[in-house]
Amino acid sequence: MSNPVTDHNKPQPLSLDNLPTNEGPYQGQLHDARDEACGFEILPNFERFNKNNDIYNRGRWDERIMSKKVIDWFRGMYRPDIAARDRDGYTARDFAFRLGGWVGTNLLIERNLKNGRVDGYQDDIEIYSEIAKEKVEIESTEKMSEEIKRISRVFGAEITGITSADERWHYSHLYDADHNAEKPVNLPEGLVNTIVIGTSMDHNIIKTYPSATAGTAVGFGYSKDANTMQAIGTFIQAMGYRAVASLNDTAQKVPYAIQAGLGENGRHSMLITPKFGPRTRLGQIFTDMPLAHDGPKRFGIKEFCEICQRCAESCPPRAIPKGPPTDTPLNASNHVGIRKWSIDNEKCFNFWCNQGTDCGICIRDCPYNMDTSTWFKKKYFKFWVWLAGSSLRRLALWLDYKIGDGGRQESNWWWAGGGDRSLVK
After folding, report:
1. Which residues, including other chains, have CB under 8 Å from residue 148's CB and lie 6 or more apart?
2. Which one of 56, 295, 375, 414 has the largest count of C-beta atoms within 10 Å of its C-beta?
3. CA-to-CA distance for 186 and 315, rounded, in angstroms?
């Protein structure tokens, strides 16, 4: 028998009859002095994004997205046998490998489920250490920022940038997995700085996309980031300052990474960095620790992507448009009020679910995704990035077509030691 009081207080499940809250045009500061340097074109109708509209959460409540394949895709993150089949890259061995890559992230997610939290995806990452009662005095924000970057490298970050908090990129609402409903974002006030960290995904595994094998690189990237951010957050709180660590929760990562000087937005709507190209996983920490900021750095991505169609041409479901940046949303999973390159998340996710695993063909075939495993290849990549950012970008594109390493390698190539110099006798 239902309890009227309890039922009244219980969050209402999301559905097409109870859509996620539309906050409407952003009421805060619409423009920032860094926008032009970041390449942001913010329009008067700009809205903060409701995370319940991201394609993964829509797969849980939106009947236009929900299907048995979607359910199996979610279950397959823990059950490697569900999608396994006798096909290169999709065998039980490949899915078992992927599961191993995701284990750190899965443990993070599971540890607080009993408390109604999904750490790293629907909620920030709980840091177990308490905030020290006495703050360590910081005499120089510049020195403290350099120290944060040094300890971040020790804890696993390969690139780190620091910027100020920008509420435009904070989600308006989060997803309540317990009730299939929405809930507020409870980010404490006063966390004025944002530390953005990046880690690279394995180039040779990425070469096997689309496959379950390649999904290992993504999962292990998330697992590394989760550990790294907890370690950095623990350090900050032990210093007496507050830290909120975030993976796919709380706020959007790419615009923050651009503001922190880590890279630029590409046609495939992912961050492209001058060190790893699009092969980068991101995490961030919001803190009140006094820190000096990095500035955005442009190195020609927009200009190159305007003439390059590689990711759009390679995308099987044609989820990546070939045209210029636009402010027209393709569906409910796109941001409103910003002119940028966006992808059709519905087409993309449908392809994922049909495969039984994620897809990163756009990462694999991006000209900025190069093998840098040797001294010569690192030098060539550095030269090529410079060339692509210059007026000779068409020459850079021609070189990539001629001698680039785009295209798929079979997963069996990787299992046989493909690309691993340590196995060469």
Report:
1. 160, 162, 195, 232, 289, 291
2. 414
3. 37
Question: What's the residue count for the chain?
Answer: 425
pLDDT over threshold 90, residue 9:
no
Q: Which residues have C-beta within 8 Å of that of residue 8, sequence separation ≥ 6?
A: none
Confidence of residue 245 (pLDDT cuts 50, 70, 90): very high
* Among the listed residues 285, 305, 342, 352, the one whose alpha carbon sits nearest the alpha carbon of residue 145: 285
56 vs 35: CA distance, rounded Å: 29
Q: Which domain holds residue 331?
A: 12-416
Q: What whole-number distance in Å separates Cα of residue 71 and Cα of residue 60? A: 8
Task: Tell whether 222 is covered by a domain.
Answer: yes
**Cα–Cα dist 148/154, whole Å:** 10
Cα–Cα distance measured from residue 148 to residue 223, given in angstroms and rounded to the nearest whole number? 20
**φ and ψ of 196, to 5 deg:** -115, 125
310 within domain boundaries = yes
User: Is 159 exposed, middle or buried (CB count within 10 Å of its CB: 0-12, 13-18, 19+)?
Assistant: buried
Count of C-beta atoms within a 10 Å radius of residue 307: 11
pLDDT at 424 over 60: no
Dihedral angle, C-alpha 206, 209, 214, 217, nearest 10 °: 40
| Torsion angle, alpha carbons of 322, 324, 327, 330, to 10 | 0
Record the tokens describing residue 156, joined without a space.
């696993």
Strands 280-287 and 193-200: antiparallel
In a domain, 56, yes or no: yes
Q: What would the two tokens of residue 101 be?
A: 């890559």
Q: How far is 321 from 323, CA to CA, in rounded Å?
A: 6
**pTM (2 decimals)?**
0.94
Per-residue confidence at 423, pLDDT binned at 50, 70, 90?
A: very low
In a domain, 400, yes or no: yes
> Structural domain tally of the chain?
1
Q: What does 65-102 look like in DSSP terms, one character per residue? A: T--HHHHHHHHTTT-TTSS--SSTT-SHHHHHHHHHHH
Nearest to 244 by CA among 127, 141, 326, 333: 127
Q: How far apart are CA 102 and CA 2, in angstroms?
A: 39
